[in-house]
Amino acid sequence: MNKKDFEKTIQKPGYHFFIFSCPAKIPVNYFMHTRIVTKDSEWNVHRRELCHFKNTIHPSMGYLHNNFLLPWQGITKYLRTTKTHFESNLVLHISGEKWSIAEKIVEFTNKKITTYPYKKNYRWIRRNSNTFTQRVINIFPELQIKLSRRAIGK
Question: In whole angstroms, how far apart are CA 72 and each of 53, 60, 136?
């Protein structure tokens, strides 16, 4: 999803919950990196994900990042540069008003993000960005979604 499409989508009122994916960094780009983006009723947009490097702005968050990159932006393609990004793929988008499943997920994510149990552990094969995304999916089975087999660590 590009910036224009993302901004058009979140202009609709209410709560929005997105799961985005993109390839993992080269040379392991066969695998995927997933992340969660939310928009609440106050128009606050948050991108949340686990990355392979620690959060230096909020060290207590470990590897968990909030708004490290723009919501629609894929991660950087290469380990040593921050200039070239993968294109994001929309995996799931749900929206709704007060009392909807979208509100429940957005509110849960906003309130419980700091309690994620594996935020201080990051591994390429397990406990990575896909583990974080899968945890939200597991808590809300109403989403009825399965991450791809390429989402190693789910």
Answer: 20, 26, 19
